[in-house]
């Protein structure tokens, strides 16, 4: 990083007027700055003050170093950016011309890409013509042309994203707008992985800015009549989300890893049980269950006499899901396993729903109860974590034989916006890097996964607050702490060899597997991405 030392001194933290005022006044204790920043946050009820809002110089450099510690980025000849000050209309035209052949004939993708282009055109038409600020000085004015010319443009892009995020976190909307004008020409949703992930984060910052414009004079958010925020309304349909999820399951190991680990834990815990009752939280598909049915059919002590799956859906059951359920029941019957599949439709899982009466559970001799959560429980992790605690206590009262938990292994629930932004940028950059190694840049499947699935997660993490922010991912240590306090103890997973075999089938060397205190972890180039675990009631 010696060549970039000049750029690393770029005064990111001086963008925030509150920070400038504090530094000039001679203050500067880290705790006092956290308090000042907390007052500027939309989210007014943080529970974890260990996550500082701003990075120290050494932390910032370490973050940027780790961000670029990826093999693919060393090939700079294949990862170029447009010229810094190229007119946006010309940039927009080039993107359409280069990508038109790829999307030709795919109406759905054409519509999706048209939306992306309109988003870029909308932000550009307003932002590239912003007048200069009268109070700009040498410290706060951002100009790419003034930055050391030999520094890699990708590094500049990362710094601009971080600086823009800090301006957003400080509610300096005019400065954030100004910085976004310098980010847009350097991002490309069809470029290399850094350009693609930066596009998603830039759009998230744009949504966050729209949110800030809906603030009341007292600093609270203006909501619509139905309680949602217009500025970050979700335009992706349920069908598009499901298609993107299925593509992710098919082309990467991230989803299949969780299914495999949970199914193996259920199969191991079901030994000697004649009947299985599975409560599946938040499912919208049947992708997990065919492999479980086949595993149960080949048990050493014979298949169970019955299996009952109760799926709690957030949305009404679609025709495609009904068809999948029928096919699953037929497959189970062909393997000699009577399968019942019941559906409960509730937009939100509450403790009142998780009772034996509501779930129609009446366990008898030789029956086992399982609670399965695949990337769902994080939606109930609020700032106070009271909601998650109530859900876990309700699950405990059901007396399950085993609880299986699969989650994203990252801290996207910090109380400070900038901390969440940094963590999520690092996390999703690793995922986009893995997609770069797995799929070509003109892949329609890759585009749908990135724009429909991951971009929506990113938007929710950095643009939403309060009950609208549901992508509240936690680290393994936090899940271990929360489940332990609720009265559960971990059960070590014993499927490392199966996980290695499964990951090897995807043909990429970058995936890594690790075991940590009972958790099975899947990562990309040593960066944790997914965690899987199993839990039983504490003795």
From TrEMBL:
The keyword Transferase does not apply. Pfam families: GRAS. Keywords: Transcription, Transcription regulation. A motif (LxCxE motif) lies at residues 162-166. Residues 463-536 are annotated as: SAW. Belongs to the GRAS family. Residues 369-460 are annotated as: PFYRE. The keyword Transcription applies. InterPro entries: TF_GRAS. This is DELLA protein. It comes from Actinidia chinensis var. chinensis (Chinese soft-hair kiwi).
């Amino acid at each position: 990083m010696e060549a970039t030392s000049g750029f690393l001194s770029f005064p990111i933290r001086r963008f925030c007027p509150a920070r400038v005022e504090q530094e000039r006044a001679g203050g500067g204790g880290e705790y006092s700055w956290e308090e000042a920043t907390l007052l500027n946050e939309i989210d007014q009820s943080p529970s974890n003050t260990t996550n500082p809002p701003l990075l120290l110089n050494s932390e910032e450099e370490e973050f940027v170093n780790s961000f670029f510690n990826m093999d693919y980025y060393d090939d700079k000849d294949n990862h170029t950016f447009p010229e810094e000050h190229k007119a946006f209309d010309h940039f927009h035209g080039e993107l359409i011309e280069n990508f038109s052949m790829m999307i030709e004939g795919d109406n759905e993708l054409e519509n999706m890409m048209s939306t992306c282009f309109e988003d870029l055109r909308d932000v550009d038409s307003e932002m590239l013509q912003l007048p200069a600020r009268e109070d700009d000085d040498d410290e706060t004015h951002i100009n790419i042309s003034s930055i050391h010319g030999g520094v890699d443009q990708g590094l500049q892009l990362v710094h601009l994203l971080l600086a823009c995020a800090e301006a957003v976190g400080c509610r300096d909307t005019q400065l954030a707008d100004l910085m976004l004008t310098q980010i847009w020409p350097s991002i490309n949703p069809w470029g290399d992985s850094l350009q693609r992930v930066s596009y998603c984060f830039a759009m998230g910052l744009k949504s966050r800015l729209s949110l800030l414009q809906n603030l009341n004079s007292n600093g609270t958010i203006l909501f619509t009549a139905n309680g949602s925020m217009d500025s970050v309304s979700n335009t992706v349909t349920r069908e598009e989300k499901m298609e993107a999820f299925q593509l992710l399951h098919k082309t990467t190991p991230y989803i299949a890893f969780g299914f495999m680990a949970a199914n193996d834990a259920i199969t191991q815990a079901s030994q000697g049980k004649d009947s299985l009752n599975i409560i599946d939280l938040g499912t919208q598909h049947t992708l997990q269950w065919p492999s479980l049915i086949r595993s149960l059919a080949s048990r050493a002590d014979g298949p169970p006499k019955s299996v009952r799956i109760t799926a709690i859906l957030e949305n009404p059951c679609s025709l495609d899901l009904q068809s999948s359920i029928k096919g699953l029941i037929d497959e189970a019957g062909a393997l000699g396993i009577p399968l019942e599949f019941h559906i409960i439709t509730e937009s939100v899982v509450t403790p009142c729903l998780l009772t034996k009466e509501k779930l129609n559970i009446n366990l008898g001799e030789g029956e086992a109860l399982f609670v399965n959560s695949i990337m769902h429980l994080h939606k109930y992790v609020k700032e106070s974590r009271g909601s998650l605690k109530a859900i876990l206590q309700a699950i405990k009262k059901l007396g399950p034989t085993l609880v299986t938990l699969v989650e994203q292994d990252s801290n996207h629930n910090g109380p400070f916006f900038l901390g969440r932004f940094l963590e999520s940028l690092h996390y999703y950059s690793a995922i986009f890097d893995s997609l770069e190694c797995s799929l070509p840049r003109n892949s329609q499947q890759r585009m749908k996964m990135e724009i429909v699935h991951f971009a929506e997660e990113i938007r929710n993490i950095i643009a939403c607050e309060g009950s609208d922010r549901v992508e509240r991912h936690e680290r393994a240590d936090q899940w271990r702490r929360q489940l332990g306090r609720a009265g559960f103890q971990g059960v070590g997973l014993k499927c490392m060899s199966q996980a290695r075999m499964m990951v090897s089938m995807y043909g990429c060397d970058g995936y890594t597997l690790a075991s940590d205190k009972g958790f099975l972890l899947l990562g990309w180039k040593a960066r944790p991405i997914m965690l899987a675990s199993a839990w039983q009631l504490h003795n």
